[in-house]
Structure formats: structure tokens, C-alpha cells
Amino acid sequence: MSATTFTAADAPFVDTGNTAWVLAAAALVLFMTPGLALFYGGMVRTKSVLNMMMMSFIAMGTVGTVWVLWGYSETFGPDAGGGLVGNPFTHFGLSGVLDQIYGYVPANAATGTAASGGIPGAAFVAFQVVFAIIAVALVSGAIADRAKFTTWTVFTVVWATLVYFPAAHWVFAFSGYAAETGGWIANKAQGLLFGGAGAYDFAGGTAIHINAGAAGLALALVLGKRIGFKKDPMRPHNLTLVMIGAGILWFGWFGFNAGSALGAGTQAAGVWVNTLGATCTAMLGWLVVEKFRDGHATSLGAASGVVAGLVAITPACATVSPIGALIVGLAAGVGCAYAVGLKFRFGFDDSLDVVGVHLVGGLIGTILIGFLATKGSPTGTAGLAVNEGLFYGGGASQLWAQLEGALSVMVFSFVVTYLIGLVLHKTMGFRVSAEDETQGVDLAQHAETAYDLMPLGGRIGASAHTTPSATKATETTGANA
């Protein structure tokens, strides 16, 4: 059949190549949550490892469930007003979604253009739910060592419903793709306050990283400081786990960013390259800061620099050039290396530096788009329009739009999360008792320990869940640098 015989009435069809890539990318992003569990688990003390990892794992169960029920509809359902949130009932239980094909472009007989395929609704659902899961899991690092597991479990559902799904609607719900009508950041043609172009956020710098970072700060303030904060050593207990977790996160992040192209093509390939470049320079930047400031370049610094670079390039990966990506990564590596010390200066206990890495890194990447956006980016080379940034002669309009989008999500997330945390703290109790915190939340919350440190030939009949007296003597303690 020749191209000119296609008409707009041709039935939509599925592009199997694009679908295969989106499903593979979804699997990569899902793998990031266990990677995050290892990354976070290695950074806490021995007595908190399992609890820290479970806080990530439980998000897979709770958020995955509510996504099917109302989360997808709240994010991509028809806008309920003002571009703020989707209708949670339109696609409740994924009603009317699985038989859809997204991204289908009908033929144009006048130009001889053949119809192009898309991806099934189920593939889009799969790709988006893994973002929701890891966004919730990221928040947990700010309250390590001291949170009640049951309250945290309830928090994951409430926060996803009241904070993440609305923010994702703002950023990811483009009218005419999956959403009938979408969110204000995704769709506005003019900046709400300053005029000019709408904000760019390709893969979730605002909806995920700034959102999770601001939420982590709010919860850290609600729960208060750990016993011994700024007094007792609280260094990571297992840097091998941290390095493995960082490696898994880096691996999965190619699905996170390049998968957000929702197709296998020029844009996805360019995003992959930018993601690699920014992560490399971020790691180098963090290590240079450590060497200059502390005299040593550490494995924890290398892992943290990797994550900082991945966070920062997430919003910018499609709209900056490869050189721009290197700049974004370097700025994030240096900036976040210094930002993790803010908790000591201002006195808030962000246990695993969610604020210093995710909030600050997300802000750096989102704002730098206003300077570095260019037609030489993956989006531009794919033949799509790009509003150029200040350094490329585009003026300040894009910068103002980026500031608007970033600050809007940050303020919204902090305020609503603080209220959620405060209500749960007053009703259920969010923080464990001082005795349980001192003993360790693994035993107190799960009746388990991560490591059996009893010497060979120890007391016969001891429970596998009993922490031997030798545990405290051999435990490595300290705080995340």
C-alpha cells in the first residue's frame, strides 16, 4: 500500500519498537527502587538497615495499588479545574485506559505522510507508575532511623494522593496525549506570572526530585532530630551497599530519562548521551570538592555525586546540548557537595541528604535550562521546537518560566507535606520512642536484624531475630557526609 492511500480514518496501530522500549524503560525504573533501598540502606547505621530498605519496598506495594485504583486517573484523567488535578474517578481502576493507543498520528493524504503508531495505554500506565513509586520512596531518606513503619505506610498513600499525583498532573499531563485536558505546567503557552514560554521538565526534576526534596525537609522538621544529631558519629555502616545501589540507580536512570521520550528514536538517544555526560561530570565535581575541602576523595562522595548528576540532568536532558549536560552535571556535583552541609548550619536533621541532593540538585537542573536550552539539544535535533535559554540569545523568559515551575512545586510540596506529617504525628505518632530509637528501629519495628553478628559457637537456640550483645560492640556508626 502506497503512502498516499492512507487517510485520517485509518485505524490506529501499535508501534512495537516504541512499545518495547517503553516497557523496558519501565522495568529499568522499577529496578531503581530496590537500588534506592540498597543506597539508603548502606548509609544508615547497622540497627536501621532493614527498616530503611523496607520504607522503599513498601512504597512499591502501596503506591502501585493506589495507582491502579485512582492514581492514574488523578494524574492523567480530565482536568478537574485550573490545571491542578485530574479527576480520580474517570479512569478508576484503569477503566477505559487499557484499550487506548497513545501517540498515534493519523495519515495525511495531502502530504503523502503515512500513519504512525503509538504505545498501548497499558504501557503508558506501566511507565508512569514506577515514577510515582520512586518519588515516594525518595522522601524516606530524610527521616531515617526514627520513623514508625506503620505511620510511614499510611503516609505513602496520603502523600501520593495529595501531593505527588497533583504535581505529576501539573508536569506530565499534556493535553491531547494521555490526558484529555492536562496540567498547567505541561500545557501553558505563557508563564503564569512573568510571561514567556512554559517551563521545561522532561523527566521529572520538579514533580519528582524537587517535590521529594521539599517533602523530605518538611518531614524532617515534623519528626525532629535524631538522638545524638551533631554529637554522636553516624557514618554509613556499609559503603559497599551504597556503591551497588548507586550503580543500579545509574543503570535504571537511562530508562528514567530516555524512556520519557516515549519512543525509540533520535530524542531518546540524545537524552541517553546527556544523562551519561552529566553524571560523569557530577561525580568528578563532587570528588574535587571533597579533595579540596576534606583532603580525601571518598567512595560515598563518588556515589553521591552520581546521584546528584542524575537528579540535575533529569529535567534538562532533552533541552540542553551535550556540552550543556556536562555543565549541568558539574554544577550539580559541586553545588550538592556543599549543600549537604546546610543541615548542620541550619539545624534540621535530613538523615540521608534528600534536601542537599534531590531538592538542590533538582533546582540546579531545572533552573539551568533557562540558561542552557538550545536547538542543538535532543529535542531540537529530533525536529521539535525548543525555546532557547539566556546563553543562546533567547532572553530571560525561559529562565523565569523555570523559576516559576520549580518554586511552585517546592512550596506546594513543603506546605502540604508538613500538614500531612503533622496530622499523622498528632494522631498515629510518626516518631518511635527514644528507647526504640536507641535500641534500633529494625528490632523495634520489624523484630529483625540485618546481620547475624553472633560469633560461631554462640548460645544454642538463640532466635534468628534476636540481636546478640556483640552487635553494639561491632556496630559501625556515623552520619552521611
From TrEMBL:
Q: Transmembrane residues, as ranges?
A: 20-40, 52-70, 122-144, 151-172, 202-224, 236-256, 268-289, 296-316, 322-342, 354-373, 405-424
Q: Does the keyword Membrane apply?
A: yes
Source organism superkingdom: Bacteria
PROSITE patterns, per the entry: AMMONIUM_TRANSP
Domain named Ammonium transporter AmtB-like is located at 20-451
Cellular compartments annotated: Cell membrane; Membrane
The terms under GO molecular function for this entry are: ammonium channel activity
- Please give, as recorded in its UniProt entry, the membrane topology of this protein: Multi-pass membrane protein
Which Pfam families does the record cross-reference, listed alphabetically? Answer: Ammonium_transp (PF00909)
The record's principal subcellular location, in a coarse class, is: membrane
* Record has DNA-binding as a keyword: no
- Please provide the record's keywords in A-Z order: Ammonia transport, Membrane, Transmembrane, Transmembrane helix, Transport
Q: Which GO terms describe its cellular component?
A: plasma membrane
Name the family the entry cites. Belongs to the ammonia transporter channel (TC 1.A.11.2) family.
PANTHER family referenced in this protein's UniProt entry, alphabetically? AMMONIUM TRANSPORTER MEP2
Question: What is the recorded name of this protein?
Answer: Ammonium transporter
Give the source lineage, highest ranks first. Bacteria, Bacillati, Actinomycetota, Actinomycetes, Micrococcales
